[in-house]
Structures
1.
Amino acid sequence: MRNKKLGLYIHIPFCIKKCAYCDFYSLEGGKDDKYIKYSERIAKQIKKIGEALSNCTFDSIYFGGGTPSLIGISGFNIIFEAIDRFLSVDKGAEISVEVNPKTVDAKLAIALFELGVNRISIGLQSANDNELLYLSRIHTFDDFKRTHSVIKQHLTDNINADIMLGIPNQTVKSLSFTLESLIALSLPHISAYMLKIEKGTPFYKMSDLLPLPDEEQVCDMYEYLCKTQKSADIPQYEISNFAKVGFECRHNLKYWERGEYVGLGPSAHSFINGIRYSYPRDLVMYMSLDSPPYEEYRILSGADIRNEEIMLGLRLKKGIIPDARLFDIAKKYINGGFMEYKDGRLFFTTKGFLVSNYIISELIE
Amino acid sequence: MDYNKERIRNFSIIAHIDHGKSTLADRILEKTQTVAKREMEDQILDNMELERERGITIKARAVKINYTAKDGLQYVFNLIDTPGHVDFSYEVSRSLNACEGALLVVDASQGIEAQTLANAYLAIDANLEIVPVINKIDLPSADIEGCRKEIEDIIGIPSEDCPAISAKTGLNIEDVLEKIVSDIPSPKGDENAPLKALVFDSYYDSYLGVVVYIRVFDGSVGAGDRIRMMNTGAEFDVVEVGNMGTFGLEKGERLQAGEVGYITASIKNVSDTRVGDTVTRCDNPTPSPLPGFKNALPMVYSGIYPADGSKYGDLRDALEKLRLNDASLSFEPETSTALGFGFRCGFLGLLHMDVIQERIEREFNLDIITTAPSVIYKIIKRNGEEMSIDNPSRYPSGDEIEKSFEPVINASIITPAEYVGGIMDLCQDRRGVFRDMKYLDATRTELHYELPLNEVIYNFFDALKSRSRGYASLDYEISGYKESKLVKLDILLNSEVVDALSFIVHEEKAYGRARLICQKLKDNIPRQLFEIPIQAAIGGKIIARETVKALRKDVLAKCYGGDITRKKKLLEKQKEGKKKMRQLGSVQVSPEAFMAVLKFDDEE
């Protein structure tokens, strides 16, 4: 029997308040005992995968959301108890929890530390309160600083902050304030995503009214971001991720490197034994059915695998080792300054990352 | 039933589009028990899917009906359907010439429209007995008396006792049948004279070869006879003759004077059996053919290219199959630097063009790119050489041209009076020359304009409809050529001329159209990694310009929680979109961009 190394993703689909731009599966409100019930459901699923994957060990665990910190000490206790009982977890495993400012106090931080959590990702988005207001976030930058110091004091230094480019009213200058603030707090990791107006979100309905920065400005922001992080010694290792050497997120690297992972919770995705599958975005169904149906279930073909290697591998700054076909198509992008080819690897430049969808769609089969 | 000329009635049904011609034909078939009701697939005579959808008849059909009249006698009706559009007025006139009478169907709520009049005039020209029929009297808006008055005032035929029916509900259909017996004369002609028969339709059957629909005027024809097509000169040995039954051909012995039927003679090519030709027997030919034969000439040309260049062979097969049944479709190979290998196709008119393009896409499942329609321009060069040009890319440069000529039409437009102003503006804008205006009645007006065909093929019909809320109707005939100041407008993408986008336009309209096309292209060319200038030029002179800005970013979204599939689908979709693109030099252009240029609308 092979001893596989897997990642475990646990989706916590709850938020105090849903943000106006957010398209992830997450729900507001509900009964008080929902966190416990949900944690128990996840514990049950953990038992199930523990039995089914008894020959595997887990070297990364990631709590994503929603706002995982909402399930509180009792919720985490239930889930970690099941993890300890039913899964074999590597000693040095990376265990991350996403939190939002204002949802972590010293008690929770200490509890998470004791449960073995060793990486925290904080949803900040911006250090400018007026931008946070536009995003309908429930916190200010001061809230973030308090949460950050609690975590740093009681839990870990391995902290990420999510930030966003293209927020209404954002400028390169205001982004620069956000970045400098985080550098000053010596955060070893940041993730930076562009605001995308997704169908079905409140932002979609009011997109005409939002003072969104134009495309040129957002491009300038991205270029500024890459440059600033590089000079702060927090280099880019993925299209949207920057880390001090050694602080790269191992769980997320699994996604880009096509490592295997099991996802639990509604909307969670899994990739194991050459199959990608996911559960529907439906909490009630997930809670009530012992074996929730798959929303998507795909046995990857050879072409799927090759295309994934390209589209995922090129998200990484180090890029991929191209075959002759790929290299041939890539030539014009190398000449155009969108890609580079060095030491046998093909990778995007900053300018290329900005139009990577366009180029990757040309490169895949 | 034995041959009895006195009991034959040959007639057509003519009407403006949507006035209920096909529904009446169905009802007649049903009432005469030619088709049992349960066997009726809607509108048997229109048996092409496309025809049924558009509610128009594109090709003529015929059917033989037995009817026992109230006088107790049995009659044979030959109903000859006619194509319902101006593009096919020659075919309509030939079908009418095969008849002694015509039912003129008028919608009781719409009254007389442009094609009602045009068809009525064709019927009068063919010396037919016209039987007006007022249809759709079940509609609340039906105005039967107003309609009678219009028929008398405008067409000038008596209508006090004409049938008022509802073909939809079947009301008063017997009145129509009895009118056919009483009013439409039986055919004349001498069955012992030399054979003289009119070809009014033909189609290709893969077992029988070409099936030729004829009306015998004199003499008779049967299997074994050697026949000659008097205009094309082609000769054949008749294999089979018979009648057109409702569900197919019914083999018979001979066709005699006054009868309508088909002949087969192992004919391979529909172009040997042109509509309007006269069939006679080689052993005893008639001295002179029937008058009125014309070779139907294409009036509108456009390039048709496969959207996927590798489907060139499939496109050729499709066109060849369509031509088997449609002698008026012409095509020859052409090459475009922009679009690769394709065909220059000639059509009778715009509808014909639309129908052919749609049939290629639908029946042969091919995606095609069509270039802007063109008419045939005539040019006298400075060196005295004369040219006819159906393809803008062959248009000589301005300094070589002494004189240029373009085809013009006589257009007749019938419209409710309140839209006259808007329509006159439209005609003016399309370089129309006002001829006259007639008040048909208190509410409706008939306008006559001479219009360049080149203007009519650019969405004139749509513009007319939109300016009249759909009420105006149009009929036209080609009236000749007129000298005109024409220029060739070239479109350049990234400084390279895209031959497939060139077109001929009147000097005065060049600037406006150039700006519009550049704008349209800008909106339809996806942004690429470099800036793309779009220019319009006459000769070497740029007269309009737009720029597609370079793409600087697409969104860097999170592959959240390992959701790889969503991203992959997005990229694959993008990839699919790119596959459909045409590479013009370094620029990728979608087929939609070509279509957008073709379908632009001045009314915007």
2.
Amino acid sequence: MNALPAWLTDTRLSAEIVPLLSGRSEASLEQLASEAKAATLRRFGRIVSLYAPLYLSNHCSSGCAYCGFASDRKSPRRRLEPDEIKRELAAMKALGIGDVLLLTGERTIETGYDYLRQAVERAAGIMPRVAVEAFPMTVAEYRGLAECGCTGITIYQETYDPENYGKLHRWGPKRDFLERLETPERALQGGIRSIGVGALLGLSEPVAEATALARHVMHLCRSYWKAGVSVSFPRIRPQEGGYQPAWPVDDRFLARMIFVFRIAMPDVDLVLSTRENPAFRDGMAGLGITRMSIASRTTVGGYHDPEGAGTSQFEVSDDRSAEEFCRALRSKELEPVFKNWDPAFNGPIVTEEAGCP
Amino acid sequence: MDSLQLGTYEFSSRLILGTGKFSSTRAMLDAVRASGTGLVTVALRRFNREQAEDDLFGPLSEIGGITLMPNTSGAATAREAVRAAHISRELSGSPFVKVEIHPNPHHLMPDPIETWEACRILASEGFLVMPYIPADPVLAKRLEDVGCTSVMPLGSAIGSGQGLSTAGMLKIIIRDSSIPVIVDAGLRSPSEACAAMEMGCAAVLVNSAIAVANDPTAMASAFAEAVQAGRRAKRAGVMPRSGTAVATSPLTSFLGTAP
């Protein structure tokens, strides 16, 4: 493998955040929570932006040991056809959703770039904000997506430990650690406005993972000053394949990690999905978390036909309806916001302005 | 009457409210009423005609005596801000536009170059243009030259609550400006709003400090009173601060005594 990029081994952040993450600092969890809450309130006020995922397909060419859609799983494969995508988006829109994350696995013949681009185009005609979580692409491909209304790309490194990464990604295009690591930068060079990063917690030693992730965020913010960067905190959930996390992350560590991120990066969106249970989600809303998914279906076709949609990528832990979840937020004096973007701002950041490589 | 003049519009209150960051639309509306403001700003990205519960524009437009000033928050370039201004005018019917262009979505500092360009275009199209700007005296005059209705320099970073950290620059902007200067962003407490008015600002715009208070309604009326007090003090003439040291031996003895 080629050498790791300098930012990944840059130790500048370590002195600040490692003691907090590892619990070696004197600050208690309660103190960190209180600081995180104050920082969130100052910059983001009392609002929580909502989005919902739309699984376009479960086709995949990779062999990620921890994923229910890996190419050796036995479940039937399916992709949404154009009229089905339209139907799903309509069902989501009826729930009030105005911000959609389109997902698919690694590139396959059935679900390649053209398929994805058409889906983005269709979604951008219906939803105010469209983001994509899919296979890594070229700069030109990202530019194409931005041109037809894709505002954000989410791409998790999964683990920042190169050795572990090699073991977990058993085959397929995702095997290349560095190629994946450079993907957020290609998206930003292609004019995508915001990038979501994360580590799939449970795969490697969590303090090191959190530190590497923080370095990644800092690197992206420094190198691409116009980029919006957001951070997600996915934890391994039960899935077809039965992978058991080598480094289970408990609630207290996850909360600590989110507080530390909020304190270290006060103006970055921090995201929590329905992988987490209602009690944890409700507790963390406003304590650092500013963006949350709602009413998620992780099956292909799950909005229009929740019963007949087949296997999910992972089990959703918070299956409350949009209405129920919003009620919980409101009871905490937080306002759920369904539309926090306008298509007037869609389109790529122009090339000469798109940060420096 | 000592009213705030913006274009052909007159406002009895010199407090302008931002409408984001509140815990609910109802809390925001209550604060707007309690503030006595006549002018509120609302982001195009929070216009939601398809879902009433999520929409800020609809409920605001139903309050009597309030003029809406749509803002372009979310725009990273002049082109996007101009597009947003056109859509906002179409939807709201308001001639006001608050030009907010912040290419960095984290710290939200306004881009002076793109802001100038957008203001030039929008002013020539007849908008009442109110740009959110860094506290830069040269930029403020450049914006006056292209026909802006006011300039809105920041007191400090949005949502930072650091008050009038740009006071030195604000004083120059106020001294040199022929159009109203409105401090926007960074105010944490009513006393800071009062200080801005005493300094000679025509108005202040407040959002976070009211929205995140434990009691936004009470805080809105506290700001209203502070703004009025500051304005009255300015008009009454604030006593000059004594800053002159007295030399032990006279400095002008070499000039002799007056004839």
3.
Amino acid sequence: MNASKYLIVGSSHAALEAARAIRMQDDAGSITLISRDTHAPYSPTVLPYVVSGRSSADRVSLRTPDYFQAEAINRVTGQALTRLLPAEQAVELEDGQRWHYEKLLLATGATPVIPPVPGLDRIDYRVLRTLDDAIALRDAAGKAANAVVLGAGLVGMHGAENLAEAGIAVSVVEMQSQVLPGYFDAQAAELIRAAFDRQGVTMKMGRRAQRVEPQADGCRVHLDNGEVLNADLLLVGTGVRPVTDYCQGSGLDLDQGILVDDHMATNLPNIWAAGDVAQARDFYSDAKVVTGILPDAVEQGRIAGMAMVEDPALQPYRGGVPINTYTFYGQQAISVGISDTADTAAQVAVDFDAERGYFQKIILKDGRLQGISAINAALDPGILWQLILRRTDLSEVKAEFLAQPLETGRRLMSDTWR
Amino acid sequence: MGTAYNSITFNQAKCDGCGDCMRACAQAKAGSEDLIHARIQILAREDAPVELAMCRQCGDPKCVSNCPAGALNKNPESGVIDWDANKCVNCLLCTVGCAYGGITFDAAVGHVSKCDGCDGDPACVKVCPTGALEYSTAGSLYRRISEREDLFVPGLSACQGCNSELLIRHTLRNVGSNVVVATPPGCIPGMGTVGYNGRTGTKVPVFHPLLTNTASMLAGLKKQYNRLGRDVTMLALAGDGGVGDVGFQSLSGAAERNEQQLFLCVDNEGYMNTGMQSSGSTPAGSWTSTTPVGEAMQGKRTDAKNMAKIMMMHNCEYVATASLAFMDDYYEKLDKALEASRRGFAYLHVYAPCPTGWRFPASDTIEVCRKQVETNFVTLWDFTPEQGLRFTRSVERPAPISVYLKQIGKYKHLDQAQVDHLQRRVEDQVRSLQAFTHMSAAG
Amino acid sequence: MTAIETAIDPRYQSRSLVCDGNEAAAWGVALARPDVIAVYPITPQSSLVEYVSQFVAEGIIDAELMNVEGEHSVLSALQGAALAGARTYTATCGPGLAFMFEPYIRTPGLRLPLVANLVTRDTLTPQCVWGGHQDAMLVKEAGWIQMYCETVQEVLDTTVMAYRIGEHPQVMLPVNVNSDGNYLSYGVTGIEVPPPVLVDAFLGERNINWHAALDPERPMAVDPLTGGAGGPGPGLFVGYRQGQCDAMQKALDIIEETHRDWGDRIGRHYAPLVEEYRLEDADYALVTIGSMTGAAKDAVDAARDRGEAVGLIKVKTFRPFPVKAMARALSKVRAIGVVDRSVAFGWNAGPLYQETLAALHSTERFLPAASFIGGLAGADITVDDFSGVIQDTARLLQGHRFDGPRWINRND
């Protein structure tokens, strides 16, 4: 049987970060990265830019082959994980090969959720999760004139913008009443939606695709209000779910994702999980959540790697904070922490100027930052993230922070540097 | 790992917030007068120290980890985090990774920008009129200091790997020759600074006070020099016994009277010069020759006292802790302490791991120093009556104490309960010190 | 004119004062113009440092006054000041002296001419705040010059003289001016404060740290380690020690010369080492020290009136011990009764008794002697007590010998 001291399944941010953390402490132990994909490691986040042509598919790799050689990291590609064999400390891949491990990290990421829309299974729709998806979408865009995008999340919005920029008539169908729910409140979302409107993208908010009907050169999408949209390209961007099919019968505790503790350890010995597949502590509540965001995947991957290598400097995970940066039509939107609250004890300060497309919303509670979301406002998301995670007491500088979050945040963090 | 890169260093105490660096950067990087383009941002405010936002060229950069496009990389040659415009997709996720505002979106150019070190010749450093910005490595800092005269003779007989010898040589180089040096009994005179049998080891006036009266003797000296109208620095280089044990009364009295002197405690956690006996600053659990390990006793039974904190409570002109693993921090504090000692009492507590007495390899001294700090076993801070206590290195997210303890022979017998005790002690100390931040003891 | 000149006597003449010994000492300090004074109060010295502090506050003394946290630091600070060239002053006694002991025993080796009044006090325990010589006697081997005063005036005069003695380049030793707690510290009499201009001339230019300085302009290591086997170690140490002993012996001459000059300039003469009182035709003598001597002299006078051939030998300078002067005095009598205000543990006698007998050895003569111990814990040795001492001493001439000391005040 093949064997690797550290076996990492996955090859994106969480997996790579874990490998790096392991090598910091153990420069000899064998590390093997197993991936379903055959490409050099890349980030799903870069895919919209491959679609738009900004990034070329052969230049998006996160690590060069030299890196793996220098760090003595072994790679197995084009093989999905099919079975966990915890009793034997082994895994089985799709071609049947088995790998024995001392420490196993599951960083298998997520896969698109396909909504149960009647007729969808008979359509050649597109998704955007893998590099191959991106290449296929790019090719399809080259031939399409009308596109429908299901879902106004990040994938859908990026996809819609890319397709519209390619000269395609695009409609976005979102069953919620706003775009990018979870990251922005209704007011901010409206600013973003309006920008798409101005660019000629048809935004169907609060609408649901009731069924899809195949056509010779595409499909027709029937909405719940009776409206029918013609599409020669259908992009499904209705979210993702953790890839956990290989966990069946293994005894691994699952909920929406693989449940992990604050060291990213699963309930089974010597198995960790990190990144989009993991369901870990939420920063704001006692619940465990799948965050599915890149900076969090990096954080979790690092923690998992440190735990696997028993790095004594390991600090427990402080909890997932929703965080995102989103650029659209040359505008910048950022969101760190919660974007809305029903908590009457919280202080909410909103600065909004529809004319300039400017929005900034700060939520404080007990002198501590809970969340900040902004469009076209100069902010340092990394600093804000730290202020939230560290529960930095802003009471003494509150007025200053509300007036100048950028400068005040920088000053506070600069003070912690030395 | 293992490579020291040049980087732009910022000495907060020297910065007057003039902003020349920002103008030079905006000009160099964008040919613009608009400071929005400056990749170094000075944050000046009245009644507060000047802060700085710029890329620190981290050794373990999170901006790089967060980049989905492979556009950011730590350059192994220069140490600079290079940004590749051709690969950048403008997603701004790098800015999520930076806790210091070092990589930011520049709306005027439509992409992120960050300091690139100007290919080794930073424009900001060249124009800095106060010397607050420098382009240097830790090594070049040492070189610069070592260009000053070493006021101790060669061949002091300290043990191999001695932290204290390094410390006193660097200290006196900075202090200069217009000084009277007091070295109460301990390793520092033991290595020959005051000399043996008529020969001295120091090029400036130096003497053995008693173990008990260093601060008082210096106080008397200073009084007479003041009377003579001569400005002479009074410097004590004392061990922890001469500070916190028998030396404490005179120290406390001198601090209370705000005597003008710089009192430096070289804390090696016991009487290392005379065979490693326990002192008041020996941490709980430590093996020493008077707190041995056996059936009935497993090292020292009580905790060390926190002398720096005690001195802070005297409301001295200046109190600071320092570690030789953080020399730039030490130099800055030494300068401040010297300045403060012209006005009144200044106390520096420097932690001095002892390879001989603590049982660790002589080559590990600085690493042990570093681990002390990284585990919060030692915290770096300074204090003035006006500003209160300020950490000069973050105490957030320390490594567990076990990382530090395992390097050192005097702790090798510790059981889990003793390790847990020390961990709790570290946490208690940090909490206690945190309570003093932003609090002026003058109040 | 300086503040002190104005305060004492604008006409450059002595000023008469009625004061106690502690104030008299403070006026002596004022006349000596110290640079640095360090104080810590202790009974019965407290009013002395209060006077000195008051004088500083009023500008009568122009000095740095250090209110330090204990006697240990008092002397330490003054050592530091002296190493920077300062003339210094302090005073202490009893437990304070005990606490000062560590820097105290070091001062002579550093050859620093500090002056410190000891307002003597019995040592603990039993708990006691009253006069006695036990404190000063305990440190007689420490290397300080020690002079015991008999009168309030002598406290002032000796305090000034102490500076000239200690700072003499052939001496360079610290000096204790000892005055009996209670009897001299609080005893009020009329005194004369000499004119500062005469005292200035008497003391001359100070040069405190010509031999050992902590001065960046003259860098040197003060007190490097000496001793140990090999090298110049032990030899160097022995050399330093011998130098201290030689200076002590030299001090006997300097003390005499200084007292003589004081008498010439100021007009008050004291026996510098040993005073002989009605000794010329005496058969036997009392040996006394300190303020008890007044009452002893009265008792001697009374005995003389009764026809007793008794005299008195008073020791002023106890360190260095004036062996020759003492031998000269002892050679004039056939028996002695030595009155101590302290005890020598293990000898069943007083320390003055011991030292007197040791000095006697140089005469190669035997004298019957008795040890009397009195005045402990502030007790009064009255004229009647001394009359008893005289009677007991007289019995020595008849062949009587005492086993152990005679304890005065045992029934007080």
4.
Amino acid sequence: MLNIALTKGRLEKQTMELLKQVDYGVEVLENKGRQLVVQDSKKPCSYFLVKSNDCITYVSRGVADIGVVGKDVILESNNDFYEVMDLGLGKCKFVVASLPEKNPYTKVGHVVIGTKYPKVAKTYFTSKGIDVEIVKIDGSVELGPILGLCDAIVDIMETGNTLKENGLIVFDEIVDISARLIVNKASFKLKRDEIKALLDDLNKVV
Amino acid sequence: MTKFQIPEGTKDLILDEALSKKQLIVNLEKLLDRWGYREVMTPTLEYFSTFLVGFDEVNEEDSYKFIDKNGRILTLRQDMTIPIARLVSTKFKDTNLPLRLRYCAQVFTVLESLAGNQNEETDLGVELVGEDTNCADLEILTIAMEALMVLDKKNFTLEIGNIDFFNEACIGMSEEDKEKLANLIDNKTLPELSEFVKKLDIDENKQKFFNQLPWLNGGLEILEEAKKYVVSDKQIQILDSIKELTNALIELGYKKYITIDLGKVPRLNYYTGIIFEGFVSGVGYGVLSGGRYDKLIAKFNRDLPSIGFSIKLDRLLTVVKPKLDYKERKIVHYPKDKMIKAITISKELRKDSIVSLNRKDSIEDIEIEVV
């Protein structure tokens, strides 16, 4: 029996579609009502839906054997699990953006970066040899440079429309993001055959 | 005053929790004692510089640090292998080799907060110092098997690999690339791995090898399958030496507990040969880990090949029910005037049970209750 943690929301639907294509009995997920844990109707799997950060916690601690979660969340966490497959879902990018006149790379003096992803931002700027101050913002990050809270932002960009509408431009692309299949390290050893079978199935459609 | 809390990442163990941990320690120590491993105890505090020498790269944020009165940096020990390396080079100068040492100690790491990690853990382990033969490897692996048996009779696996299998394929590569590659392979971060391998200046065979390495794990058949991907003759020799070890373990009756993972590449500058990790059903992390570290003690000025392992006990407490060394718990109830008799009786009962006394004046004579 495999315990699978799915990230709630859009990713949950897309993952379900993938599993359906390889003949998993996930229709139960569609009419789950208030049920928190549901059984696959065809395969020995059970699913539960969690928030993205929790998905990582559940998998790291072995409560879930497998999780589906965005690379953005993985990058922001301290990963202690295997990241075995790129599901190609929810594709987007981490970018550095700001107003055209506020280039953080050429600014002389103290640079402040606003972001929902402090770890990603810190790692990126450290690798570039640039010393910055990170300010954590939880929503509407684009406001930061406009209102003068920070010089630039590090955020996820899907289409680029939000940035454009707010007059921000992309200065650099940090890394591509998509949903990943992660596996608990101990489960990988103790439930090897079941996990391998799931991966082989998914490989047919990914 | 309502704020009597304990620091994050620490734990109080009470009553049965403490009993069961203690019993687990006793059971494991008995095993190690019988193998002729002698206990060493080192200070909880060490100079931070000792750890800087031991680990080539220390993540400074991971250790608790203090300043002593002379301005030197102290640290709470992060593991026991480095204090033992220090100990071997300073306290065992003229001792006959090999040394068989064991320990059971609290170790400390500053971990990510609120992730459910423990910052203080009990580490119990052995080190076989001064021997680099296959026999030493086999001895340690056998003890690891027996220790896992003590923990969980059925559901465990001991995964064996050899870090040189990876190192061999990296000859000619920059340290930085090698480190990155090791990380991606060890965490089986496969999407990034294939991207990274493409960027490296290596031939097609090596590319194929590195992409395959995270999948070179499973049963004993992996040792044969791996031969399809090797990029040097030395790697064939390494596979053969693992085979020799696993054959010996099979002969000793451990076949169903052995798995192979050639894509195991933890802590590059510490381990030098065979590495292994034990997993017990119900625990999401490895509970036993070890390997050969032939270069470590040399950093403390004594060149001694060594191998050892340690068990992270606290991770096991929720799933392992240790064998208790008493039969049952009893209460001897006695009225006031029968106290001497009660003590005499309970002394006899204590030979195989835990017996506590309870004064109860409402009864006439002694009553023994099993709880």
